[in-house]
Design a protein that fits this description.
22 strands; 470 residues; alpha/beta; 7-stranded mixed sheet
Length: 470
């Protein structure tokens, strides 16, 4: 078999890998992409971020039509759900997005090899077919592992993607379930639980911890849970699922208190397992070539994304840092720029996170709890959307903006938002913090009126001195 030679071989065409490949091609490299899916974009574009956001938007509009438009003087008959059209639109959004990436690959002359990548040695990659046979042999000066992550299994529970589903199966349900049980109250579980609750399902969320949304600022979390509960989501916290039995009639779960106690039975039509994700690194041949791993099962890299084997690099969910698509993309750009002799860099401490429910939750930087643990003296500025004129006009006054700043220097240390446009607003905070802005800096920037972003200005003013409109 003839060996094809490239400057860079990327394994995995998710948001980390495909962005890295495009940037490398822009920098003049001859690039090959190895991807096992028939379409580019990885989990995010195919069965993750993009289809879930399409369903979140559609279900949000359905909820608005049924409950929220009357306040604006728009009176409708109870809306009828065209479930087939809703799912068709979701699929069209995915198709358009993945085709867009394929166009960019053609534009940048990136070679695509469909199959599973295996690293045989530094600079050597085999592309395997479904039968395990070698389809192509590639050589490159550099190899980039961007294989992403996969669903973390739950002991005692077998995912069949029919009755017991992962996030992938939850995006492909044939109908709205009567009762959906979500195991795990993290980002994925809350987002998909919200989708199906809006569309008519009874939703129960079972979480091992005594709180939802781990990692989110405690005050935000308390407000968030109250908001979701008002929407109809039911929560069972401090509980663990130890067994699940699926049948044609549904699923029977065995649920126990996390701290010990008698078990009980919970029945559901569909169960969504969403307890987290783990790096997808099996089958890459890492042991054979000597790539070192961390204690958490991720690929160990240095500050420039280099593994223990020269010429082999890794990014995204396969390494440490937040398991987020945008973090993977930034990793990929920084990695290939460094390979090209430039100075790529990613500040993992300022990677924004978003939960795309309604209200949205978004944050960047540290929480109050993290600052207290670190012994940092800080001050807090908050501003509610009930006081924001544009939010009042929009009828979206749930939530608030919270700015945390260093007590001595006024440098912004964290920004936390719960509200209708939190995911968009958090970008301003990220930019400000990347340039070491103070709360006063944000508060003195002229924000257009009336906009929802004025709440960011007022919260910053509250942290620095005093808000004007509160």
């Amino acid at each position: 078999m003839a060996e094809e030679t490239f400057d860079l071989v990327v394994i995995g065409a998710g948001p980390g890998g495909y962005v890295a490949a495009i940037r490398a091609a822009q920098l003049g490299m001859k690039v090959a992409m190895v991807e096992k899916r028939a379409t580019l974009g990885g989990t995010c574009l195919n069965v993750g971020c993009i289809p879930s956001k399409a369903l979140l938007q559609s279900s949000h509009l359905f909820e608005e039509a049924g409950h929220d438009l009357a306040q604006h003087g728009i009176v409708l008959a109870p809306p009828k759900l065209d479930f087939a059209q809703l799912m068709k639109r979701k699929n069209e959004v995915v198709e358009a997005t993945t085709k867009g990436v394929a166009f960019l690959f053609r534009k940048n002359k990136i070679a695509i090899f469909q199959g599973t990548g295996r690293i045989d040695a530094a600079g050597k990659v085999s592309v395997l077919g479904d039968d395990g046979a070698v389809k192509s042999a590639l050589a490159a000066g550099n190899i980039l592992i961007a294989t992403g992550s996969e669903v973390t299994p739950l002991p005692g529970v077998t995912i069949d993607e029919k009755r017991i589903v992962s996030s992938t199966g939850a995006l492909e349900l044939a109908e709205v379930p009567k009762h959906l049980v979500v195991v795990g109250a993290g980002i994925i579980g809350l987002e998909l639980g919200s989708v199906w609750r809006r569309l008519g399902a009874d939703v129960t969320v079972i979480e091992f911890l005594d709180r939802i949304s781990p990692g989110v600022d405690d005050e935000i979390t308390r407000h968030f849970q109250r908001a979701l509960a008002k929407q109809g989501l039911k929560f069972r916290l401090g509980a663990k699922v130890t067994r699940a039995e699926a049948s044609d009639a549904g699923v029977t779960l065995t649920v126990e208190p996390a701290k010990g106690g008698p078990a009980e039975t919970v029945r559901a039509d569909i169960v969504l397992v969403a307890i987290g994700r783990r790096p997808c690194v099996a089958g890459l041949g890492l042991d054979a070539v000597g790539v070192k791993m961390t204690e958490r099962g991720r690929i160990a890299v240095d500050a420039h994304f280099r593994t223990s084997v020269p010429g082999i690099h890794a990014i995204g969910d396969a390494i440490d840092g937040p398991m987020l698509a945008h973090k993977a993309s930034e990793d990929g750009i920084a990695c290939v720029e460094t390979i090209a002799g430039q100075k790529g860099h990613v500040n993992w401490d300022l990677v924004p996170s978003i939960i795309y429910t309604q209200p949205e939750v978004a944050w960047v930087g540290r929480t109050e709890e993290q600052l207290k643990t670190a012994g940092v003296a800080y001050k807090v500025g908050k501003y509610p959307f009930t006081a924001d004129p544009r939010s009042r006009a929009n009828g979206t006054t749930e939530g608030f903006v919270k700015v945390l700043a260093d007590k001595a220097s006024d440098k912004v240390l964290g920004v936390h938002i719960i509200g209708a446009e939190a995911g968009t607003m958090i970008a301003e905070a990220g930019i400000a913090m990347e340039f070491s802005a103070s709360a006063e800096d944000i508060g003195r920037v002229c924000h257009a009126h009336p906009t929802v972003n004025e709440a960011m200005k007022e919260a910053a003013l509250a942290a620095w001195d005093k808000p004007i409109h509160l």
